[in-house]
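Technical note accompanying the year-one report. For the benefit of new consortium partners, we illustrate the data format agreed upon in the data management plan: each record pairs a sequence with a structure-token string. No post-processing was applied to the example shown here.
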Amino acid sequence: MAVKQPPFTVGIEEEYLLVNLDTRDLETDPPAAMLKECTELGEGQVSPEFLRCQIEIGTPVCGDMQEARAHLSRLRKIVVDVGRRYGVAPIAASTHPFARAIQQKHTDKDRYVALAREMQATARRMVICGMHVHVGLEDDELRIDLMKQLAYFLPHLLALSCSSPFWEGENTGLKSFRLTVFSSLPRTGIPENFASYGEYQRHIGTLIRNNLIQDTSKIWWDLRPSWRYPTLETRIMDVCTNVDDSIALASLNVCLLRMLYRLRRDNQHWRVYADMLVNENRWRAMRYSFDEGLLDLAKGELVPFSELLEEMLGLLKEDGEAIGCSSELAHARNILKRGTSAHRQLKVFEDARARGASEREGLNAVVDWLVRETASGLS
């Protein structure tokens, strides 16, 4: 049976780390008044996260990418402006350059207390932030069908979003160290391949019936059917430091799903590849971002990322025009040209060290850059 065209609406969630502007370290216990003011000004779209040093924003449902950018910019600016009055700043990075995980405190909320109790040391390491993109797909079966097809492109999205090269003062050698931390939780990684929405429900039901999870919010795959909304939620991406990078990644996400829907409408299907190959690309994106290319699974060959990006943008040309985000899609080329946040953080650190800065001073310079870049381009 034919499925009517989905709305392809979009909602974006971003998590930020809160830093003390004097010490550049994480603010382990931000002023309650600051959080209250952010929450009130955000009208329910700004909220505390698992750790007290984190804050989350979430746009409303948006009809196009220009509306999404306006809301994302507005919500970021609330946290920037309010935080400044308290000597605190948000950084849109998936890890802090030198903060110690053991020193952080979780938010005193029943859900978070239960999570900390269940996950133990793995939860105490969760000083990480991500960006989640929700795309409106009202049909249950369509969400499951497109979920496994979109999994092919998850490493490509990650490669363009990397922002976590440092961990507790160490240059990890990875452009996205965040996922090595997150993967210590259960029910993470590439999503399972289900033949139908009913099959998905049966598997989830086994976990819920045995009280292993309470609801599907505890399914932390890189891509999942949202537990609250009629959307498919992409979760693999690091949070982007630059707001235009965020919108470019969200645009790619929406257009990829529209392209996959078009294939289905025309009785075609993106080939589903073995998880071991998709996971190989996932690892390469974590390790190198786009520097060393990814496997083209159709060819079975390692291909420069620039070629893969141009091929992807060509596939999505019709979708970008239909959704009205052609220029936002094209911004992905700018990311490739000047580097992700991870590339830029590393350059700031290396430049500071070359000028004679100590290692800590170099890391402080990275924090200062993250503070500035997170706040740039906001209306």
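Partners are asked to follow this layout when depositing records. The radius of gyration is 20 Å.
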